[in-house]
Amino acid sequence: MDLYRLHTDRESLYGFDKIAPQQVWAWHQHEPKEMTPYEQVIKKDPKYAFKYASAMKLRYNGYIVPMEDVMVNDAHLAYGWANEILLGRFKEGEPVIAKDIRFAYQYAFSIIKGRWKEAEDTIATDAMESLKYASNVMQGRFPKGEAKMKEDKQIYDMYVDMVARKKEQRKEMEEIDAKLAKSSGKTKEEYIGVEKRFNMSTD
Predict the structure, then answer these.
(1) Which of 19, 75, 125, 126 sits in a 20 to 30 Å window from 151, CA-based?
(2) Are 71 and 81 in contact (CB under 8 A)?
(3) Distance separating alpha carbons of residues 81 and 105, to the nearest angstrom
(4) What pLDDT score was predicted for residue 18?
(5) What's the CA gap between 169 and 175, in Å, rounded?
(6) pLDDT score recorded for residue 197
(7) Nearest to 82 by CA among 71, 134, 201
(8) Which residues are within 8 A (CB) of 171 and not within 5 positions of it... i.e. 6 or more apart?
C-alpha cells in the first residue's frame, strides 16, 4: 500500500529516497497516473520507465510521458520507444540501435522504412540480417554484407536468386515507365520511376 500518496509533500518524508521503481509499479500499475509524482524514482530503472510510459499512453489517449532520456543507452528499449511509443523514428536512440545486430535491420525495415547507412556496418556482420536487409530494404544488392553471406551457402544462394529477381522486376518497371511516358506525351521522370520503386543504389 502506498502511504506516501496521503501526503502533499511526500518527497520530504522519511524513506522516500529509498523507494524502488518496482515498488512504485506494484502500487500503481493499474492506475498509472498515480505514478506521476514518482517519475524521478521510476527513471532509475529504464525498464520500469518504459512500462510506465506504455501504460500512460494506453490509458490516456496516446499521451506520451517524456522518458526519452533514459531510453537512449539500451537498444531494446530505444527500439521499443520508437516502435510502440512514438510510432516513428527515435533520433536520440538511433546511435545505440545502429550498433545492435538484434535491432538494426528491424529498425531500418519497420521504422525508417528504407535504407539506413549508419547501421549497415552492423548489419553486415550477420548473414541472415544481411539477406533480410538486401531483400526487404535495399530491394537488391547489399555489397557490404556479401562477404558474410558467402560464409553460408544456403543464405548466399537465396541472396543471388533474390538479386536476379529484383533485376528482372527493375527491367519490367523501366519498360512500363517508358510505355506510360510515350502514351501520355510526358517524360519518364514525371512518373514514379523505377529508382523510387526499387532502391538498387549501393552507394
Answers:
(1) 75
(2) yes
(3) 16
(4) 72
(5) 10
(6) 45
(7) 71
(8) none
How many residues can be counted in the chain?
203
**Distance from C-alpha of 18 to C-alpha of 203, rounded to nearest angstrom:** 54
182, 175 Cβ separation under 8 angstroms: no
Buried b (16+ CB within 10 A) or exposed e, 129-151: bbbbbbbebbbbbbebbbebbee
Residues 95, 97, 90, 63: is their CA dihedral positive or negative? negative
Identify the three-state secondary structure at position 69. Answer: helix
The H-assigned helical ranges of 29-138 are 39-42, 46-59, 75-80, 94-98, 104-106, 120-123, 127-133
Using left for φ > 0, alpha for ψ between -120 and 50, and beta otherwise, residue 185 falls in left
Per-block mean pLDDT, blocks of 10 residues, the chain (203 long): 55 66 88 89 94 93 92 97 96 98 98 97 98 95 96 96 87 74 69 47 49
* CB distance 160 to 135 below 8 Å: no
pLDDT at 194: 43
- Terminal-to-terminal C-alpha distance of the chain: 59
The H helix count followed by the E strand count for the chain is 11, 0
User: What's the pLDDT score for residue 198?
Assistant: 44
